[in-house]
Amino acid sequence: MTEATENSTKHGPLSNFFVKRLQCAGGSSEYSCEFGSAKYFALCGVGGVLSCGLTHTLVVPLDLVKCRIQVDPAKYKSLVHGFKVSIAEGGVRGLSLGWAPTLIGYSAQGLCKFGFYEVFKNLYANLLGEEKAYQFRTALYLAASASAEFFADIALCPMESVKVRIQTKPGWSTTLREGFPRIKGEEGWNGFFKGIVPLWSRQIPYTMMKFACFERTVEALYKFVVPKPRAECNKAEQLMVTFVAGYIAGVFCAIVSHPADVIVSKLNQNAGSNFVDIAKSLGFMGMWKGLMPRIIMIGTLTALQWFIYDSFKVATGLPRPPPPAMPESLKKKLGLA
Length: 337
What we know:
- This is Phosphate carrier protein, mitochondrial.
- By secondary structure, this protein is an all-alpha fold.
- The chain has one domain (33-319): Mitochondrial carrier domain (Mitochondrial carrier fold, Alpha/alpha barrel), CATH 1.50.40.
- The chain has 15 helices and no strands.
- Helix 4 (60-71) packs parallel to helix 12 (235-269).
- The longest helix has 35 residues, at 235-269.
- The relative contact order is 0.14.
- The model is unreliable at 1-14 (pLDDT under 50).
């Protein structure tokens, strides 16, 4: 039995979209586990915990000022002014408000976001088959990332509710230990999930752009920019491509998801408000407050997340399929063989 047949038997006959790419990259002897195995998906989830939890916690000061600009632009007029006012009111230490719910919430989100993305991407590729998976790969990335983010936001929402209130409501609780039971006591469990719909509205388009734009940008960089195939690049060169593609994807992510991000911040600041009322009160221009600091934050975040995630895959020996190439069977059908 050949290696391709073995893989088809274990993962179904349609998983060749990824398996053949790995074989072309040099076989499977160098990998710590089999592509598509439970261990593979579990380790991808761990990589997501590290990439999202660490990076979001790292930029808490920027996130805090961004949220304050969104909910009170009259007081926090710009990024620089927002930092000055925040430091004047709470000192440098005050810039770390909300770090604990950020670390916990985004670690949980990263586990689901990256872990489930790999699961759904493999699942949907299996359903499409090798040729259609290649032809409709952008739609494949969009569908897999949207499916993953749906569950990731459910994991994130409670901690996001606590974080935003800590950062934007002066005099409210300043720690997770105080804030979590306060929301539970005053609003019940609904208080933790009142922002789930706007969170989906923000995060699902963001994640769809994050993954689809990243995947296609990596493909384009190796095709048009990098002077040699990925197989000939060393690990450091490959990770540099990952970082650049991640930053480009992050800029588009920030723009696409920004209006919903503003609404989430206002929604958690104003008790009893709802998505539609907040959107009406803000108006079109109001939903773009704080865009520049968010572009800086999300661009940096996304680049670092992909860099950490790919570095984790390299360090743990996980399979990393190279950019897709047209299957030989499709070339023959199109007369390109």
